[in-house]
Structures are given as C-alpha cells and as structure tokens.
TrEMBL record:
<feature type="binding site">
    <location>
        <position position="83"/>
    </location>
    <ligand>
        <name>substrate</name>
    </ligand>
</feature>
<dbReference type="GO" id="GO:0006099">
    <property type="term" value="P:tricarboxylic acid cycle"/>
</dbReference>
<dbReference type="InterPro" id="IPR010097">
    <property type="entry name" value="Malate_DH_type1"/>
</dbReference>
<comment type="similarity">
    <text>Belongs to the LDH/MDH superfamily. MDH type 1 family.</text>
</comment>
<dbReference type="GO" id="GO:0005829">
    <property type="term" value="C:cytosol"/>
</dbReference>
<feature type="binding site">
    <location>
        <begin position="8"/>
        <end position="14"/>
    </location>
    <ligand>
        <name>NAD(+)</name>
    </ligand>
</feature>
<dbReference type="GO" id="GO:0030060">
    <property type="term" value="F:L-malate dehydrogenase (NAD+) activity"/>
</dbReference>
<feature type="binding site">
    <location>
        <position position="121"/>
    </location>
    <ligand>
        <name>substrate</name>
    </ligand>
</feature>
<feature type="domain" description="Lactate/malate dehydrogenase N-terminal">
    <location>
        <begin position="2"/>
        <end position="147"/>
    </location>
</feature>
<dbReference type="InterPro" id="IPR022383">
    <property type="entry name" value="Lactate/malate_DH_C"/>
</dbReference>
<dbReference type="InterPro" id="IPR001236">
    <property type="entry name" value="Lactate/malate_DH_N"/>
</dbReference>
<keyword id="KW-0520">NAD</keyword>
<feature type="domain" description="Lactate/malate dehydrogenase C-terminal">
    <location>
        <begin position="149"/>
        <end position="331"/>
    </location>
</feature>
<dbReference type="Pfam" id="PF00056">
    <property type="entry name" value="Ldh_1_N"/>
</dbReference>
<dbReference type="InterPro" id="IPR036291">
    <property type="entry name" value="NAD(P)-bd_dom_sf"/>
</dbReference>
<protein>
    <recommendedName>
        <fullName>malate dehydrogenase</fullName>
        <ecNumber>1.1.1.37</ecNumber>
    </recommendedName>
</protein>
<feature type="binding site">
    <location>
        <position position="96"/>
    </location>
    <ligand>
        <name>NAD(+)</name>
    </ligand>
</feature>
Length: 339
C-alpha cells in the first residue's frame, strides 16, 4: 500500500504532477492538498480517470493537512509562488519559506517517516528549512529528504543532445551537481556519457544555458509563471518510472531494486559517502548522484575528478550556496530562539 501526498496540488506543477501520479500503477492512494478551493475541481476531474490510485483531496479546513499526510509514504511539495521575469529564486524566500515551514511541521507531526521531495523554490534554502523543522521535532532522517534538482539533469540531457543533433536526448547523461539556482548549478561535462564532442567555448555556453534554463521558461511565459510541465515530469520521474520512462527511481528503489542512481539536493551528513563530499565542497547541502534504496538515500556518490573549468564553477557556486543554506537554517533557528 503506497500513499503519495502532493502539497500544492492545484498549482501549475501540482496539477500535471498529480495526473502523472494518478497514472502510476505503483501508487494506491493519492492525497491532494492545497489552500485554494479550485483543488476540489482538480480532484473531481482526476477522479474520473480509471486507474488504480484512489484519490482524495483536502483543503486546510477540517484538519485537511493532517488527513492528507497521515499514512503518506511520499510527500511531494510544489506549494509556493513561482518567479516572474526579473526575479531570482531567492526573491521567493520571503513567501515560500513560511509555506514550506508550515508543511514540514505537518510532515514531522503526521508522517515523520515519509520520503520528502521538495520542489518549492528556493530549493537551496527550502530543503534546509525542512531539515531544521524535522530536527526540531526529533525526526530528521537525511536519507529521506530530497531537493528535486532533476530538471537540471533533464535540461542538460536535452540541450546537449540538441548540439549533437541527436534525436534521442535520453542517450546523453550529464551529471549536474551543486544547488538549484544560477551559478550554484554545476554541470559536469567531463563526466558526460557518452563523452561530449564540444569545444571549451561550446561547453561554457551550454553550462550557462543549463544554469539559467529556468529563466528561459520564466521569460517565455512572460509573467504567468515558471516551468510547470517539465517540472511535473521531473518530479514524477524522481518518484516513479514506469515502462514509458527510461530510468527507474525512488518508488522502485523503495521496492528493493538495486543500482538506481538519481541526483538530488541532500543533507550530506548522515548519508553514507556524504561526509566525504561535504568535506570536499565545504557545505553540508549539495546535489550529487545518489544511490537510492529502500531507506531512501543509500549512498552519496563522490564528485569524481573535476576539470579545471568545473573546479572553477565549484568555487563560484560555493559562496552563494553557503549563503542560501545559512538563510534557511537561520529562518528556523531565529524563530526557535524567540520562543
Ligand atoms: N525545483 C525545481 O526544479 C522547480 C521548482 N519550482 C517551484 O515550484 C513552486 C510552485 O510552482 P508553480 O506550481 O508553478 O506555482 P503555482 O502558483 O502555479 O502553484 C503553487 C500552488 O501552491 C499552493 N499553495 C500556496 N500556499 C500553500 C500552502 N500553504 N499549502 C499548500 N499549497 C499552497 C497554491 O495555492 C498553488 O495552487 C514555485 O516555488 C517554483 O519556483 C518550479 C519549477 C522548477
Ligand atoms: O526558474 C524557476 O524559477 C523555476 C525553476 O526552478 C526551474 O525552472 O528550474
């Protein structure tokens, strides 16, 4: 019996993500939660689909969050405001930090053992917020908390394949490490498979395109939001992969499949192999390829040998990422110290 809760289910990401979850034969119960009444219509609409997942939806009234979360094995969080042109992800902190704090408090109370997938931006800060809340409640397990950076990996495959005039982007795997905003996003082309045939100048341009891929969508949408459909795909891909998707991931790993590796932004200490990465980068939160298992993050993979260019990217990423992490941690610790 697998229960998945989507928090922010009536939104631009939440709706297509819920649709993808409703299609999954591995999900038995799908609980939708949002603060807007439009959720009810979304839920009735989805409930007409003849698939296995039993659907229920909850607004904050009548203990809605508690009902959505109780018994959940996976909680996916796309709740919060998206960017408009000219904004950075950090500009979303003011509103989204409080939203994520409230939802994380619910998770700590009602389903502390769930796997938590944080989509809400700024991911570099919202994941530390969730971790601090879980710590506060004495239920933090770093192996069960993931910042979803899958979209960066997907973009790296897509954009790289375009430059190689390849018709099947899934053939390119480019590890992307670091965080999920601008300069903190570090594609590792030296470790691409198959090896990329690009000049250094082309790799530099491609790196910038991946780092600012989100801005491309924000600008194209002209004020109506940021990536929703590609993000729903990315979020779903992280949780579940059916026969129509290439890679397997968390749901399969939890069911005992071995050797499943997906990158995500994690709290490195507490994940085997994570301490080594943390020492190397000097930050405790970082996105790295993670081997997934029944308990979640089974092993954090080392960064491998980096080119001089990639080492330079890491140097540039470090101060911003450190600041983003500290901002999330302090957001919770300042509140606790006022109590
Ligand atoms: N990690 C990633 O790669 C990506 C992250 N995002 C982020 O995902 C978030 C959501 O984006 P969209 O779906 O486009 O926004 P949206 O505005 O379309 O949807 C957000 C939903 O969250 C709901 N919500 C607000 N407060 C809530 C609360 N306290 N509890 C439950 N639900 C609440 C809203 O009612 C709305 O339905 C944004 O922060 C965005 O920046 C977007 C794309 C990629
Ligand atoms: O750019 C944004 O604000 C949304 C996002 O995180 C992405 O598309 O990678």
């Amino acid at each position: 019996m697998v229960k998945v809760a989507v928090l922010g289910a009536a939104g631009g990401i939440g709706q297509p993500l819920s649709l993808l979850c409703k299609m999954s034969p591995l999900i038995d119960e799908l609980a939708l939660y949002d603060v807007v009444p439009a959720l009810t219509g979304v839920a009735v609409d989805l409930s007409h689909i003849a698939t296995k997942a039993q659907l229920n939806s909850h607004l904050p009234t009548d203990d809605g969050l508690k009902k959505a979360l109780t018994g959940s094995d996976f909680v996916i969080i796309p709740a919060g405001v998206p960017r408009k042109p000219g904004m950075t992800r950090d500009d979303l902190f003011k509103i989204n930090a409080g939203i994520v704090e409230t939802l994380a408090t619910g998770i700590a109370q009602f389903c502390p053992k769930a796997f938590i997938l944080v989509i809400s931006n700024p991911v570099n800060s919202t994941v530390p917020i969730v971790a601090e809340i879980m710590k506060k409640h004495g239920v933090f397990d770093p192996r069960r908390l993931f910042g979803v950076t899958t979209l960066d990996v997907i973009r790296a495959s897509t954009f790289t394949s375009q430059l190689h005039e390849c018709t099947n982007p899934t053939q390119y795997t480019v590890p992307v490490v670091g965080g999920h905003s601008g300069l903190t996003i570090i594609p590792l082309f030296s470790q691409a498979e198959p090896a990329v045939k690009l000049s250094h100048e082309a790799i530099k341009k491609l790196t910038i395109r991946i780092q600012f891929g989100g801005d491309e969508v924000v600008e194209a949408k002209g004020g109506s939001g940021s990536a929703t459909l590609s993000m729903a795909y990315a979020g779903f891909k992280y949780v579940y992969s059916g026969s129509f998707l290439r890679q397997a991931n968390l749901l399969h790993a939890v069911h005992g499949e071995k050797g499943i590796i997906e990158s995500s932004y994690v709290h490195l200490s507490g994940i085997p192999g994570g301490e080594n990465v943390s020492k190397l980068v000097g930050i405790d939160y970082f996105s790295v390829p993670i081997e997934l298992g029944p308990d979640g993050a089974h092993k954090a993979h080392p960064l491998g040998e980096l080119s001089d260019y990639e080492l330079n990217l890491l140097e540039k990423a470090r101060p911003e990422l450190k600041g983003n992490v500290a901002k999330g941690v302090e957001f919770i610790s300042q509140k606790s110290s006022k109590l």
